[in-house]
Q: What sequence folds into this?
């Protein structure tokens, strides 16, 4: 990819190294952002593969995105029912295997990953009890994961935040561990939009292949449509995993 | 038909934003005696026939795996209610 930011979309052919990567996008009943996530995967230069929650075939994908929405209407707890989908069992096995399948959970996808205990902590209702939708400034705290290696450490990015249950909670011991192990992937900058402990917007597992965050990178991948009508900060999530897959930076 | 009642509450150390909002509304209606409110969930699992120890054990396991998330919630009560 060109080092310079294009004023409009960069339509140059992706480098041959990354072409051929297959990234699965899981759809549950009530998922909303699977189409946008698949579009982001394609914009990054990979093939998007639709995965259905009730299936058990991962179709040899190289990575998986669990997109946002309201799977099962957020009934019981956000992500609580989806977590037991047959496809989730396959994804959990692959994420924990030696192959360390890269998995990105966005919003409801993040909630599904915490309910699955693939990521620590949990999300409860925003402290102000309102649904919130805004362009959100984040700081990339850890650029050593499969999904963040395209960012600079400490880089500030703007992507969309939109949720009701976005308040990240975990006990103090877990929070201390996350900090000590550099597993806080993203923090909210400025106003904490939902009361999340230590302003945490996203975390990773120990190996760095599983990342979850509340804001939506897939809505900020194309010039003209992202935050402020120009933001493309989300695209690097999807190009990062391709770099990771070809054995580039971790 | 007997029912197994399962009560789930947010852990004491987890802030309960909904309970807080309810606590704020009470005094506006003249209910001024309550210091705090915490909101929980009650599940009723109906059983066709007698509730055996095995069925009760299943209910306890379901309470810990699906009905509650041990990261943020406690199962505070599992009891059989005969109708």
A:
């Amino acid at each position: 990819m060109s080092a310079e930011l294009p004023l409009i979309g960069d339509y140059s052919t992706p480098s041959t190294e990354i072409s051929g990567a297959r990234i699965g996008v899981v759809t549950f009943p009530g998922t909303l952002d699977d189409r946008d996530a698949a579009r982001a995967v394609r914009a990054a230069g990979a093939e998007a593969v639709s995965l259905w929650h009730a299936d058990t075939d991962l179709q040899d994908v190289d990575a998986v995105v669990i997109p946002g929405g309201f799977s099962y209407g957020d009934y019981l707890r956000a992500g609580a029912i989806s977590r037991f989908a047959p496809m989730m069992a396959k994804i959990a096995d692959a994420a924990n295997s030696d192959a360390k399948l890269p998995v990105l959970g966005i919003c409801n996808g993040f909630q599904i990953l915490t309910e699955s205990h693939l990521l620590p902590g949990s999300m409860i209702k925003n402290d102000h009890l309102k649904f919130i939708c805004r362009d959100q400034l984040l700081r990339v705290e850890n650029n050593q994961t499969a999904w963040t290696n395209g960012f600079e450490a400490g880089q500030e990015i703007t992507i969309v935040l939109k949720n009701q249950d976005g308040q990240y909670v975990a006990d103090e011991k877990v929070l201390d561990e996350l900090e000590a192990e550099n597993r806080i992937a993203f923090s909210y900058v400025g106003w904490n939009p939902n009361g999340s402990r230590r302003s945490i917007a996203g975390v990773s597992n120990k190996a760095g292949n599983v990342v979850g965050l509340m804001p939506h990178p897939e809505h900020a991948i194309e010039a003209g449509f992202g935050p402020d009508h120009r933001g493309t900060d989300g695209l690097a999530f999807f190009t990062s995993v391709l770099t990771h897959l070809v054995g580039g930076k971790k | 038909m007997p029912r197994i009642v399962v009560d789930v509450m947010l852990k004491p150390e987890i802030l309960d934003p909904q309970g807080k909002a309810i606590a704020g509304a009470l005094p506006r209606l003249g209910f001024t005696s309550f210091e705090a409110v915490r909101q929980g969930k009650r599940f009723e699992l109906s059983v066709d026939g007698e509730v055996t120890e095995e069925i009760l054990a299943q209910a306890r396991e379901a309470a810990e795996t699906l009905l509650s998330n041990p990261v943020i919630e406690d199962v505070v009560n599992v009891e059989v209610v005969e109708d």
Notes: Chain B touches chain A at residues 10, 13-15, 17-18, 21, 66-67, 69, 71-72 (CB under 8 Å).
